[in-house]
Predict the structure.
Amino acid sequence: MTASLGMAVWSLGRRDVVRFVRQRSRIVGALGTPMVFWLLIGSGFGSSVRVSPGDASGHFLEFAFPGTLALITLFTAIFSTISVIEDRQAGFLQGVLVAPVGRSAIVWGKLLGSTTLAVAQGMVFLVFAPWSGIELSVGAVARTALSMTVLGVGLSGLGFLLAWSLDSTQGFHAIMNLLLMPMWMLSGALFPAEGAANWVRWIIAINPMTYGVAAIRESLMGEVGRGAAAGPGFAVSLGVCALFAAVMVVWSLRMVRRST
């Protein structure tokens, strides 16, 4: 990566972060909505739902916490990429396309900005972990940040692909409701795969969000309290997330380079 390309990526990523911080409604939406989900769903089910039968530690509020971190990553990364549509309509994107830095700067800049915002908001939400019964350590926080970073890159790449292919923000929101929310709901964030219908278990198994949630849960909870929610392990889950991120990045780069 040349110095000029690196500077362009940094500038585009920083632009997204600055624009996000200046729009308080986006901060509230990206962080507040998952928090409401966690509080209402977790407190609503409360101790009436046990993810580990016979285990008093299996409180649903604790179980739902890793999935809420994944939802924050999803909301922040996806909503940040919607600016691709806005930039195209405002003419900013056309200016970047003709700049002598290469079209890949658009992709890398968007991934940098979106992932930075997703991880930062997830780290803010971690302060509520002790409230749900999760004890934090330096290692747990570091592994969680790594998991959210890899998942954030993949989701940012997916959001970029959607935004690059669409012409309106209304269409973007429609796709989000149709595709992205089911991705989160069928990821082990709300219920473990065990006990679900066979066709649901197949969807959970091929869903990349499943492995993001599993990596975050393993980072925070380890072997304790996972019970029926036990995933394939941190290394495997992170590896699948990394593969998903790599596919999304390569696909985004190819799409941008082929566009006119």
The chain has one domain: 3-258. Residues 138-165 form the longest helix (28 residues). Residues 3-258 form one domain. The chain has eleven helices and no strands.
